[in-house]
Design a protein that fits this description.
heterodimer; A: 842 residues; alpha/beta; 14-stranded parallel beta sheet; 17 helices; 40% helix; 13% strand; disordered C terminus; B: 110 residues; mainly alpha; 7 helices
Amino acid sequence: MYWVYQAEFQYNDFTGPIPRFTELSSLDAIAMSDNYLTGTLAADISQLTVLGRMHVESNYITGTIPEDWSDLQYVANYFLSDNLLTGTLPAYFGQRSSIAFLYVDQNMLTGTLPSLANATNLVVFKASTNRLVGSLSDVFDAAGQAFLTTVVVGDNQFTGSLPEGLFTSESLQVFVAHSNCFHGSIPAALCRATGLSALVLDGLSSAKQCRDQYLTGSYRISGKIYGSIPACLFQLPNVTSLHLSGNGLTGSLPDNVDITQTLYDITVSHNVLTGAIPRQIQERPWLTLDLSYNRFSGTLRSDFGTQSYNFSHIVAQILKEEDWLKYWQNLTGLFVDVNRSRLTIDLAPTVLLVNNRLSGRIPGALHAIHDVSVLGTNLFTCKIDGSDLPPYDSGLANFQCGSSAFDVPYYLWLSVCTMVGVCAYVMSRREQAAAAVERTQLWFARSRGDAATPGLAAFTDWTDFASTAAVAIFGWIILALIPVCLTLSTEYGNFTYEYAWSLSAAFLSGTVPFAVEFIVWTTTLSLLCAGTALYQRRTATHGGTNPLPALPEVLSVVENELLVFTLYATMDVAVVVSVNIAYVYIAVYKSSGLLTMMQVFMSFFKVLWTHVCTSRALRQSCFSQADYLSLQIFVALLNNIVIPCCVVAVVSPNCFYDALVPAPAVHSSYVTPECKVFGYNLDCMLYFPQRYGTFFEPPFIYSYQCSSSMITYYAPTFVNMCLISSFVSPTAQLSLLWVYNASPRGGIARRVLEVVLPPLLRLPTLSAESSSPAAPRRSFYNVNTLVTSMVSFLGILMTYGVVFPPLAAAVTATVLCVSVAERVKVGRFVDAYSALPLTAAQ
Amino acid sequence: VSDIDADMAELGSLPVVLTNALWMVVTISCWFYTLFLFDTLGDAVGFDGAYWVLIVMPLMPVVLYFAAAVISVRSLGADGRVGAIEKDKEGSSEGVEMCDVVSNPVFAEL
């Protein structure tokens, strides 16, 4: 049967081993691709001395590539892709000048690549998705391989630097080397590859085997790939796709260069690229523009993507793909659904700009793009209803425009402050209010106490201290920190527009702002220490201190209550961490409407949990003594400052979320001319463009915006908390008191309010028995709650307030409001019972 | 009134509480500032140039504490009160030791 020249069995469901063809001595082509063949590659195929082409791709063939095939002198095309081949790529492949197409990709080949320098007719070499190692430096010889158009070596473990010598080849059209273990920089020699159309260098050092991996599975770049993107890559005359993602590249995109007209696909995500997005890139429409996960700053131009652009070469490419499908349909008789609408789908642009530092308005051209993601972590502004945001953006639901999340509650707080101020002024002008004002002043004065009531004196001292400290800190913030923040934001801000955040120390970058912040903040802390020392020196001079608890006594109590304390601490941390995780999760991943609700809930939670629940728990656990006040303060600071910071650090994508949870693989694609029809002389008769997918797992690259996220996520909550503590809570108490006084004695409302309202407010009627010296002492006031609350607010003032001065105004006002409100309540109580003749103390 | 006065008498230990609260606030503030300073510097010079901030800043309260202690001792020495305090310590209860342990001498000893 020597007259059989070709054995074509591809695209069937054949199973079993590859049949023996040794009897067919004239066979010049074996085509068994796309079947279910198993077994190994037979060594005796080497007896087919005139064999020129072997297609066995897409089967289940195991074993190694036989060494005996070295006798096959005339084979031009080896298509061994997508099998289960193991072992190394034999060295004889590099010695055969006849080889033109060598496809060994998607196998399990190991070891290094032999030198292919003598394969002088090599056109396409594909070895991607194997386990190949070693350097590529000496594998190719650009000078001797004049026909080499395609080198695909992605998804392996190649080390060393990229093969610069290869890029001197003018014939090279496609070079794909994603997901390897390369190191070094992107060589400028690439600029000499003038024939290059697709360059895929995503994740050059991202292969699992060479990662600096964290315990959580994510990994860091650790400087293996460095340098910037050579500007000339954008000017290569034939380039269509540039993929350079996931390499930690620095520098900026080239400005003022004429980008070649053929380029329609730029993917440079997950790098550390800075600067503005160049005008040439912004003006042009792109089929794929992926600049996400970088540090691009500035604004988007209003003429973004509006420049007229000739997509004819892309259309022609897609049409050629379809023509191939039709051709193949005619050839095989198999039905292929060639739909012209695919042209529209393939021409649908993709624009990804998330996780950058862009601000300003979003250009209208992005509204029409369906595959768009530009919002996340950028600071774009928008209308109040968000109608000018891209409707198809994947982050639309949870995007907060500019600083609107903070602006809304802050304006509300300012409005309420103004209203209260106006009301107070109007009332003070009315004669009938004069008596009430006078009465209030009397109550306020009554709260001062005297030598006979040391507790009241201490209470007054404490409220005085808290108010004075808050005002002093706020004064320092106004005088020193606001000008500093404004100046630094203007000069060293990460965003062009920072909205309310321009009054903060967030979003800054540079050594100068670092030095200024360091000096100003340590000065603030020193002033706080000095101020407190002065205050205490004065208090001590007045002799207002009580004996301190002895250490052994305290320790014994702690020892006795260790179990209770542990349970309490565990419960507190569990509840507070859970609520904060829910809050930040909603802030990051859920809708803005839900976030507003959560902010209000969070504010109530902060007030109620710290001031009601934890203090009650401590009381039940015998921890309500003054000795344990420090513990309460510690817990309050933990709940209000430390835990929120920790939660943001864990949950926010600006912090370490991607370090804890590995980011999903990034997929992209490129188009390469693929030979579909071979002639009898084994040359390729017909090339068709074919799209191939690539992927890489992105590294964790810290954005240095974690601290800023703490401000942006929690500032609105703290403003709401100030609103509740300053206005809502006193108003609610007054209203309930009014209802209580208006309710008939014995009624349900009155009985309920007797439970709800604290005795300090409702001024219970005292019987002679209850007021006698022999009667057990009744508790009217939980002073721990007040101190804890005040220290919490001072803590927020010293942390969030110092970093974000507008918040300091709200916190300071809240401290003053709470201080005045508490003193009026206590004064009213003292005034009421001082007048009673039965009061024992009187 | 005596009842509410007794409720508030818990504030009698205010100096100790205040001292503890102050150092808690100072410590937490330092940790808080650490993040901002690290981000500000790290964004410009990278992790290798900024990691020291993560070590130095959290230790700043210790520096402040010892600075305050030194100032306090010098101030007491200048006032001629060190001897008196030492004498107090020798003859006093363990409460003074508590003061030493939980608070900065600049505040607690005054």
